[in-house]
Design a protein that fits this description.
single chain; mainly alpha; 2 domains; 4 helices
Amino acid sequence: MVTKLQKTNSSRKGVLPLTGSVKDSAQQIWQAGLGAFNKAQAEGTKAIEALIKEGVSMQRRTQSVAEEKISEASNKMSSMATDISSKASGQWDKLESIFEDRVAKALNKLGVPSAKDVSVLIARIDELNRSVQKLSAKSSASKAGPKAARTATAKVVSSATNVVTKPGAKRASARKSAVDHQPI
């Protein structure tokens, strides 16, 4: 066996420089790979950090643009809502005035006096009260007699009934006849 080992040793001496060079090449390749890995890791970290920074800045820009668009959209929606509500309010006002006009016409046809008619009548009644007080003061001062007082009162009442116009004209004449027949 020993002889065999020596034979193999002698055959190895010729192969030894080839194996050594392969071994050296493999070791250099290994070391180059480790260096490339180390460099890629360092530059990769830098590249990843640069990408992260770029992503953060892009996210911020995107958020600001999105916020601007949302703000514009909300402003447009609020202005549209304001326009719609003002148009709706105008329509309600028109509807209300149409309704009021129709109710006033219906009440007028039924003979119900309007608020304006009532205020005119109140003013006229106040004026008539003053006239009656003046006449009663004059009649008591002159003591002309009951017939002159009745005539003066009838004149005041007839002038009061002339104030009522359109809707209440029929009722006013009815009141006048009722007043004329009442004893004073």
